[in-house]
């Protein structure tokens, strides 16, 4: 599988393109070398034949036909290996002299040149070989054939052809191997960047992409990314500092103001005066709840997956949350259905998980009308724990489902209801810490009140994997040690982001 994924990388495809260009260049170069080499050897053979023909023509002009026959016989006797081929025949192809007995008739003539086989058909007594000759007519109706044994030349050409084929094959194999190794090396460095980036996105903001000190493109990219991360951390620290300042400078005065209003409320006997004071206390409580929710979400998002995790029986935790909110549902005459599997184990922070479940149930109760129905279920599917909270309330339009996890985002239909739009933001932050995912869908498609079905998927507890990870992480410090956020079941934090 890794090899298949390696073949799909852009670096391998670029190396493959280079391989094609390189192989084409090598093929053209070898073809040119073969063409020039084979052509040169053929020209050398033809020049040798032409030289012998010129010598025989000179003998013919000086000594006549008898002298030509004598010269051919002498040359044949001096060439026991029969490298040179001679045949002087009459007009009807009767042999007069030479080392062939029969005129070769199967080869066609091209500008006087013929290629034929030396075999028994032409009176050849040795092994079958290839020959090339020049044919022309001599005065008096005679025919003369002068040629050379080109078997070695043909063998050499075939050897060169095989060498070219093998060379092309080796070139392609080496280019493919080199492309694979080059893309593998590049992919490894990219994967290091991806792995560190994923860990940084999970909250390990102290990590940085390693460099090799070679000052190559990857080192420059890593340095730029590290500088960008340093800048992001600096800005986040600034935001965190501002949040802490707000916590110290505003939360305490706001709490004092709320307490003073409450004291005033208790001291006032006039009902008309008590009502505005009570509303002011409620508004102060809402401001404090919103402020605390913002700080809690910010802490969760900056700490990443650094929560203190233990083995949690998800069914028991959800059952406790349902017991807490069941009375609230009864007050609104709502049907509260539970389908909880008790053997579902996950690994996580119990307090944060309880707050997440409480937010979802509180949202379902708050936005489901009286006499509506709510369903809470826990099960395990395909290696994941599934928490489902569905209701028959107003629901969320499909176009806005991707926006409800933003802070203070409220769906138009729920703006008149109490809430601060931070409930699902906190649920999203807790889910991300536990490496889970959330899916939102309508409970009943096409209905006036389609309701909302929230499904939270969390990884199941894997004891063997956990032990291996503990062994790998032994002795390593946590990159993002943080004070644990103690999460409560504050109903004011349960406002759904649609609200």
Describe, in plain words, how this protein is organized in 3D.
By secondary structure, the protein is α+β, with helices and mostly antiparallel strands. The protein folds into three domains: 2-154, Beta-Lactamase (2-Layer Sandwich), CATH 3.30.450; 203-303, Helix Hairpins (Orthogonal Bundle); 307-494, 2-Layer Sandwich (Heat Shock Protein 90). It has nine helices and twelve strands. The chain has helices spanning 2-7, 10-77, 151-201, 217-267, 271-303, 314-331, 350-366, 423-433, 463-473; strands spanning 84-89, 95-98, 113-118, 129-138, 142-149, 310-313, 335-340, 345-348, 373-381, 384-391, 437-441, 452-459. The strands form three sheets. The protein has a five-stranded antiparallel beta sheet. Strands 7-9-10-12-11 form a five-stranded mixed beta sheet. The protein is rod-shaped, with a radius of gyration of 47 Å. The relative contact order is 0.08. Residues 465-499 have low confidence and may be disordered.
- Largest sheet, described in full? 5 strands, antiparallel
Q: Within the CATH hierarchy, at the fold level, what is the topology of the largest domain? A: Heat Shock Protein 90
Side-by-side strand order of the widest sheet: 2-1-5-4-3
What percent strand? 15-25%
End-to-end C-alpha gap = 46 Å
Number of separate helices? 9
What are its keywords?
499 residues, alpha+beta, Beta-Lactamase, Heat Shock Protein 90, 5-stranded antiparallel β-sheet, 9 helices, 12 strands, disordered C terminus
Short description:
α4 runs antiparallel to α5 and α6 packs parallel to α7.
